[in-house]
Amino acid sequence: MYDPKSLKAEEFINHEEILETLAYADANKDNIELIDSIIKKAEERKGLSHREASVLLACTDEEKNNEIYALAEQIKKDFYGNRIVMFAPLYLSNYCVNGCVYCPYHMKNKHIARKKLTQEEVRNEVIALQDMGHKRLAIESGEDPVNNPIEYILECINTIYSVKHKNGAIRRVNVNIAATTVENYRKLKDAGIGTYILFQETYHKESYLQLHPTGPKHDYAYHTEAMDRAMEGGIDDVGLGVLFGLEKYRYEFAGLLMHAEHLEAVHGVGPHTISVPRIRPADDIDPEDFTDAIDDDIFAKLVACIRIAVPYTGMIVSTRESQKTRERVLHLGISQISGGSKTSVGGYYEPEPEEENSAQFDVEDNRTLDQVVNWLMTMGYIPSFCTACYREGRTGDRFMSLCKSGQIQNCCLPNALMTLQEYLEDYASPETKKIGEALIAKEVENIPKEKVKAIVKDYLLNINEGKRDFRF
Fold first, then answer.
1. I want to staple 436 with a disulfide (CB 3.0 to 4.6 A). Which of 70, 412, 415, 424 is the partner?
2. How far apart are CA 56 and CA 306, in angstroms?
3. Contact (CB, 8 A) for 287 and 244
4. Residues 209-238: pLDDT tens digits?
5. CA 68, CA 440: separation in Å to the nearest integer?
6. Residue from 260, 90, 87, 107 nearest 176 by CA
7. pTM of the predicted model, to two decimals?
8. What pLDDT, on the 0 to 100 scale, is given for residue 139?
9. Start-end ranges of CATH 3.20.20.70 in the chain?
């Protein structure tokens, strides 16, 4: 029986409810009167249920789809303005005991280079990332209780935060590691992590079991209930995601929104972020083996419908996607992107030799961070290296209440401009710096409160003179 308040995976992600939702969406995909009413509700900026959003996703009317895209774009502007948060992944280890058939880290893969960073290597990687200009990392690791125990992850987090190189500092470490215990989530919280990220991969239980034939990840319930344990352990910013292409995309879409509804119903706060990765080529993985892969048009529709359904939630697209695809979905709902990324274990400090490939997937967007920052600003976006909300304790329900009320805007634009100014002063190429300074001069005038505007202008001058880390 479907129950969003249940703590049992098969009740808050209920197979029968999803099937009924998909049938309802199919029956109403051309019901213009119903679609209009759902769009009208979405215009209130309070979100949609998984069933309502599924009708919009199934809609085939071109005019209504254009309305959906326009609304998604407007909601994105309303909550996130033209800011895009920047981050980079840091892979610590690809040792893994699972048998996931879509990931080259699976334990049966005997020819991928297995690596695990030492603390000295972590320091070197962090220095390289700081020298690029990054302030926010997402650490990644395979699941291996011997090679990658929680103590190793915690030691790496401590090392990352300890490295201060020139004007560089990693100010927020998000963590993407396997489902674990409440006790371990408490340890991660105490270590000062930002968001705990865990992709479901697929919400379809039968497919999930087939895709994860061996290893601890085979336990569907334990994996699906991980976010509840994380929140019980004190982590109030969690990030959801599925790997689109493993199962029918409309099934995954409904499951993803049901998971968000469950977190809201039980914990009073939904996901901080939702990621939308698509399956990519990797070592011994061929996307052609997965028949449910989605094209760019469906991908864009998914991004737009997620943005409408959960207007307050950050959305992430990585360098899995090409520049062209990322450009298309940025205005439809994406609020965070990676830049200059490596998906190998190491590779920032020194390029990885071709014969020692340890990458989890092939990167489609290979541009440097400076090139990505330049590209964003040329399109009128503000690349933001801000971590202020996390560092000021504006997380979980505190962040969401400010976001829903619109008060967060009084912090976000100023903080984005100041962190961008830091980047321009310390890391940008001359061309990027020139574009950025013109953008900041223009955008600072858009700060609504005159008092705040005056303070920001003063802080920007201080940054030009060598001072760092101002925030609201």
1. 424
2. 10
3. no
4. 999 999 999 999 999 999 999 999 999 999
5. 31
6. 90
7. 0.96
8. 98
9. 80-198+205-239+272-295+313-366
